[in-house]
Structures are given as C-alpha cells and as structure tokens.
Amino acid sequence: MKLTTQTDYALRTLMFLATKSERANVADVAQLFGISVHHVAKVVNQLAKFGYVRSVRGVGGGIELARKPDTISIGEIVDRFEGGMQLLDCVDTEDVCAIQSFCKLKGVLAEAERVQRAYLESVTLADVAPGARQLAAAGRQLA
Length: 143
What we know:
- This protein has helices at about 5-20, 25-35, 35-50, 75-80, 105-120, 125-130, 130-140, and strands at about 55, 60-65.
- The chain has a two-stranded antiparallel ribbon with strand order 1-2.
- It has 2 domains: about 1-65 and about 125-143, Arc Repressor Mutant, subunit A, CATH 1.10.10.10; about 75-125, no CATH class.
- The chain contains 7 helices and 2 strands; from the N terminus they run H-H-H-E-E-H-H-H-H.
- Helix 2 (about 25-35) crosses helix 3.
- It is mainly alpha-helical and about 140 residues long.
- This is Transcriptional regulator, Rrf2.
- GO terms for molecular function: DNA binding; DNA-binding transcription factor activity.
C-alpha cells in the first residue's frame, strides 16, 4: 500500500494538532513539515468536512482537533482519504480476469487487506502523536 500525498499530509496535520493544547494555524503545520501552505489548507478543509478538525475564523482563530486523539483511528483517516485500497481489482470487482473464479491469489490478497485494515483501525492518533517537546525540537532543527 502506498498512501497519497494528501493522506500523508492529513496524518501529519492531525499528529501536529494532537500535540497542541491551543489552536494552531495552517502556516505552523506547513512550516514544521516543509510543505506548501496551499496543500495543508486543502487537507485541513477535507479534515474539517470529515469532522476531524474544527476551523475557527477571526482573532484567536485557527485550527484544532474536533475529536480527542484516542477516538480517531489511523484506519479511519486512511479509509476517508484513500477510499477503497484493494491490492488488485479482482479482490473487489467481478469479471476482471479470466481465472478470477478459481484463482487462489484473490483470497490471499483479500486476507492481507483485511489484516491491514484491522491493524490500522486498532491504532489511534494518540498512539502515533509525537510529544510536544519532540515536535518543538524538530521545528528548531528545521529552522
């Protein structure tokens, strides 16, 4: 499995926000990870649409988690951003291969997908979020 850049940025943004006790802004995320403010803003819009991030406008505004980190699974995020993640089309779609009806590889790949999904669902944002000190130190190293 290879995640898209959008999913990568979404996970990084959520990890960043999980370390914050106050609101942050898109520029903070972009600066820490060395990525475009525009790309982070697009991801934040999606995260807000999905209910993971709350965006507050105006003075004192910014972005913050809309849910507690221990209630957000990594699998949930990956599924929202990636959609179906079949290793091959035949795992989820009929009539894509001449040997599909008797192919044993299809079952193997379906089980691999099930195990992968179950594992990602078992890991929460709280499990992968860095400590605030670690994040601050990483920011200083990049400056």
